[in-house]
Give the backbone structure.
Amino acid sequence: MSVEISIRNAVKRYGENTIIEDLSLDVKNGEFFTLLGPSGCGKTTLLRMIAGFNTIEGGTFKFNDTLINIMNPEKRNIGMVFQNYAIFPNMSVRKNVEFGLKHKKNLKVDIKEETNKFLKLVKVDGYADRMPDRLSGGQQQRVALARALVIKPDVLLMDEPLSNLDAKLRVEMRTVIKEIQREVGITTIYVTHDQEEAMAVSDRIAVMKDGVIRHCSTPQKIYQRPADVFVATFIGKSNLLQAKVVKENDTQYVEFLNGYKVVFNDMKDANHEEKVTISARPEELTVHKEVQKDGIKGIVKDSVFLGLNTHYFVDLETNEEIEIIQESEIGEIIQPGSEITLTINTKKANVFSEDGNSLMHGVDNITTKEQADKAL
Ligand SMILES: Nc1ncnc2c1ncn2[C@@H]1O[C@H](COP(=O)(O)OP(=O)(O)OP(=O)(O)O)[C@@H](O)[C@H]1O
């Protein structure tokens, strides 16, 4: 049986150091939920609190209505997969998967039948009698996944399970993990510092920094309407441009350093002359070969043709440097040294106040079960 997880006002300290101050979060039953953030932000710490390997200094952790704060890890009925393959090197694939079942009391199942079912699920049934040293990294992680799932855990916790694999295998394995999680329907918390991986697998992502959830929402909403400048730059690539708010004749403009003015229809009301930061992803900017009156002028420093798209690195007249991605056209690459004009897609780019918080409408923070029920 899968459960929902509820965390309220969590606190974690290591000695004098407070790692997590006051963190609250619900994870829905069956959801694929990802903790994403830079190294040291507290992802693993939080995961280990849920697993029972870390003490909890404050707040409540519940699986459905059961308080688990001081429950032993074995009693929490959790399946875990770590980055370094946690499978036993001296046991065959089959024995590895059987191991969990044999050590699980009160699970009245046919061990052989159940093991076969999970070997098949993760597609390692063809190597059931092989020893782990004769498996590839991806196959080893499949075995680790089967071993975690065969005991029918209530929750699956995964800590950077793909980080020892090469780039191509990572992409392949994240699809495998997502498919199997869907098929089994188990509540899953996944830790990664790889934003693309997080977007590919998750129903919802919590972006963390310094023990705080800065934005928790669906991958699409986090990418398109990030809650603050940190989230905008951590998820995908964002160019940051300085500007100010100008109010003229009942219209609110954003004026860039060179005087280029645009209107953001989805922007909240701000103060005249207020300083703002615009974050624009490389695909949210357009390069014009002809020098135009409206826009920001710049000189192309480098053009990198990558097939479908061409990346332009541009020095702007505002002394800012940016990267633009444009769909490649036949014979149309703009050469380094060329003068261009840049315009901005105001439907997609975001505006942030001086303290870094979003000034856009439509920023969703979905941390409670009620919000998640409505949004997912
Ligand atoms: N056992 C410990 N004792 C003291 N400090 C610790 C301990 N474990 C972690 N920390 C500290 O807690 C903070 C959060 O660490 P944590 O491992 O949770 O980060 P993370 O986001 O998972 O990073 P990474 O992606 O590098 O694993 C770090 O500053 C780390 O140094």
